Amino acid sequence: MVEAEIENDNTDNIRDKVFYENNVLSREFYERDTAIVAKELLGKILIVGELDNFCGGIIVEDEAYYGTNDPASHASNGITPRSRIMFENPGIAYVYFCYGNYYLLNAVTEKFGNPGAVLIRAIEPLFGIQNMMERRKNEKIIELTNGPGKLTMALNIRKEHNGKNLTSIKEGIFMLDTDKFYNDIKLSFSSLAYKLSSFKLINESQIAISPRIGIKKGRKSLLRFYLKNNKFVSRK
DNA sequence: ACCACGATGAACT
DNA sequence: GTTCATCGTGGTC
User: Fold this and answer.
1) At what angle do helices A148-155 and A129-136 cross, to 10 degrees?
2) What is the DSSP letter of A86?
3) CA pair distance A213, A147, nearest whole angstrom
4) Could you tell me if A234 and A59 are in contact, meaning their C-beta atoms sit under 8 angstroms apart?
5) Rounded distance in angstroms from the CA atom of residue A187 to the C1' atom of nucleotide C4
6) Interatomic CA distance for residues A180 and A21, integer angstroms
7) pTM for this prediction
8) In angstroms, how far is CA A28 from the centroid of its own chain?
9) Which residues of chain A carry a pLDDT beneath 50?
């Protein structure tokens, strides 16, 4: 059963559409209010790697972090060596080390000079599933990317990705505007052995909102967003 | 120079 | 449901 799933990872069929610059989310997408960006990133596709070797999946859970008025944010105390990146250009990656073991991926938001970032908490695997299984040392698809530290391990996101430009295919990490090639990718994955739970155009009624996870301050804000009934969401 | 703690995951019960 | 390994970061002294 696992073997069948690997064989049907039909990355080859859609390679050119994935690495098509016009399908990548632009800087303007990120240069907006962080909660709006977080909400709209649901259903979009995260890709890591090069044309001949890449992996990725559908974003199904994320969280918004602001600056001065958000005690849970790394930017709450202003610019430090770590938080500096959150004040820079929207559409770049903020990757930081957590709990002595894990790298966590964020997308920087808001206008230059205003801090903001969206933490990517879970994706639904689409491409490079075999590589993900090897990196995670786990053959269960459900366990590959259903958490912020898990997905960075599965996709091989490390501190070198910090500051990379997410709005171009050139730096090996980017986000795709699913709406632009929805029909292509839907067709390409119609024979996937495991059942895709998120591959549909996202509307408001499919999105759930909750407090953020794993923080002690700022718990009252409803800044976590996830797709209802998606089995790759880290926690209910 | 020091030190408390965390945007976690894995392995338990 | 529980505990805990692990170490970079940043605030404090």
Assistant:
1) 110
2) G
3) 11
4) no
5) 45
6) 11
7) 0.93
8) 17
9) 1-7
With a CB cutoff of 8 Å and minimum separation 6, the contacts of A187 are none
A41 touches strand B (CB under 7 A): no
Which of the nucleotides in strand B have any atom less than 7 Å away from a protein CB atom? 5-10
Cα angle A66, A167, A70 (rounded to 5 degrees) comes to: 5
Q: What pLDDT was estimated at residue A180?
A: 84
Residue A11: C-alpha distances to residues A44, A48, A74 (Å)? 17, 13, 36
Measure the N-to-C terminal CA separation of chain A; round to a whole number of Å.
27
Closest nucleotide over all strands to A137 (CA to C1') = B10
Closest nt to A96 (CA→C1')? C8
The pLDDT tens digits for A37-70 are: 999 999 999 999 999 999 999 999 999 999 988 9
Q: What is the reported pLDDT for A125?
A: 93
Summarised one tens digit per residue, pLDDT across range A199-218 is 677 889 999 999 999 998 88
Whole-number pLDDT of residue A201: 78
